[in-house]
Design a protein that fits this description.
- The chain is 79% helix and 0% strand.
- It contains 18 helices and no strands.
- The chain has helices at 3-11, 26-63, 68-95, 99-119, 124-137, 142-155, 161-186, 191-208, 224-232, 235-264, 269-288, 290-296, 299-319, 323-329, 333-338, 340-351, 357-387, 389-410.
Length: 420
């Protein structure tokens, strides 16, 4: 019995997905290669598509004379969408429309929507509407694709989420370098063509991946709101949501304010691409080996380490004396997010009932990243407009540190599980 087994046995049975290597027959090995390759390709092309378009969107809007406040408002509304749309789409995928069809249709729709952003960029209200629609069709699909993988794993236990997610981070990193160079040489308006190609590849791989049928509702099935209410009665889970929001402010910086900080240092799309490469590439080895870390160390300790480096990364970024040091500081993403995400998913699986874990994970990710995105983008945009982007980094670093303190002070509290 390994160390993580003993920890899990104290709290509850260990989470699905954090398993020892399974013995595979020759037939299963072929199936394993196929399912991991296809799912990893879907994840990879999805994140590459996000990188090619959404990562450079702020820089594109800035080049088209959008103010920090206008950009902050756009990102705030994108975060509002990010709170609600993934959960709704996930519910539809559970009971009404197969998840494969949803992914294929929405990613396909995102291609013409992105071109509409380019066509309407001179008209702020129309451009805003088009950007928000791309948020629904594409950017909010990350947790939906994650849930596709978790449901596939119920049928195919040899699906390795850590390895496929690490491959996706590497693809994002490589795309950041390639896209940054292309946009520097040929202009940021080429982002729409690059995005179309990568999104089309994601659709092709998604069409080849196994489908997951919708679930049949039973008389004993709980409503969405009663499930959420029961989850919120779990004190550890409620505290975690607050901590996740605090940590989420460190992630808001990456999408909205880091391009502005790089631009203020004299950087171009090439430098943004290099910075994004360092961010994503640093995650790969940690995510790939996440199961080993979870077997060796207490999951609470891993979360504390990741929360500490989330605040530290922001401080080192804003204090960086040059563009090179700013880019180098992004390597701390390995511990601030690469360690955070797998540890977070495992921790949620330990403190919530088995039958609610999909809802618990989707809700936590939506609230954790969405609420911080709404508050952070809106007030961060105002703060950057009036006091400079440095002030955003200092404030958000402090908020991330508050999340660390809250989790550290409450992690030893023994909370009985609610009656199921």
């Amino acid at each position: 019995m390994t160390f993580i087994h003993k920890i899990a046995a104290i709290i509850r049975p260990r989470a699905v997905g954090i398993n020892d290597d399974l013995p595979l027959s020759s037939g299963d090995k072929k199936k394993s290669k196929r399912i991991n390759l296809l799912y990893g390709s879907v994840q990879s092309m999805y994140l590459a598509g996000i990188c090619s378009f959404h990562t450079f969107l702020v820089l594109y809007l800035k080049d088209n004379n959008y103010s920090e406040f206008q950009i902050g408002l756009i990102m705030t509304l994108m975060s509002v969408i990010g709170v609600f749309s993934p959960t709704i789409i996930g519910y539809i995928a559970d009971y009404h429309i197969p998840i494969k069809m949803i992914v294929v249709v929405l990613i396909t729709i995102s291609i013409p929507l992105a071109f509409m952003v380019q066509a309407a960029v001179a008209f702020y209200p129309i451009a805003l509407a088009m950007i928000l629609m791309t948020g629904i069709a594409e950017k909010g699909m990350g947790s939906v694709i994650d849930s596709w993988g978790m449901r596939l794993r119920n049928k195919h236990p040899y699906l390795n989420y850590g390895a496929t997610r690490g491959l996706a981070s590497l693809s994002y990193a490589i795309m950041a370098l390639i896209a940054g160079r292309i946009y520097e040489s040929f202009g940021l308006d080429k982002m729409f063509v690059v995005h179309a190609v990568v999104a089309a590849l994601c659709v092709i791989f998604a069409m080849m991946l196994d489908n997951v049928p919708v679930s049949k509702k039973s008389k004993d099935s709980k409503s969405f709101f009663s499930t959420v209410r029961q989850l919120l009665y779990i004190r550890q889970y409620s505290i975690l949501l607050v901590v996740m929001v605090m940590h989420g402010f460190s992630m808001v910086v990456i999408g909205t304010f880091q391009p502005i900080l790089i631009s203020d240092h004299g950087g171009t799309s090439v430098h943004l691409g290099i910075s994004s490469f360092v961010l994503a590439a640093s995650e790969v080895p940690v995510m790939y080996n996440s199961a080993k870390f979870l077997r060796r160390f207490r999951v609470e300790s891993l979360l504390i380490v990741s929360l500490f480096f989330a605040a530290t990364r922001l401080l080192l970024s804003v204090l960086a004396p040059s563009l090179g040091w700013l880019i180098a500081a992004q390597s701390l993403q390995a511990l601030s997010f690469g360690l955070y995400l797998p540890s977070l998913l495992f921790y949620i699986s330990l403190i919530t009932p088995d039958e609610m874990q999909s809802t618990a994970i989707t809700l936590a990710l939506s609230v954790g990243f969405g609420v911080s995105g709404i508050i952070g983008n809106f007030f961060g945009g105002i703060l950057a407009q009036n006091f400079g982007v440095d002030s955003v980094y200092y404030l958000f670093s402090f908020l991330a540190a508050c999340g660390l303190i809250l989790f550290r002070l409450t992690r030893k509290t023994s909370i009985p599980r609610p009656a199921e």
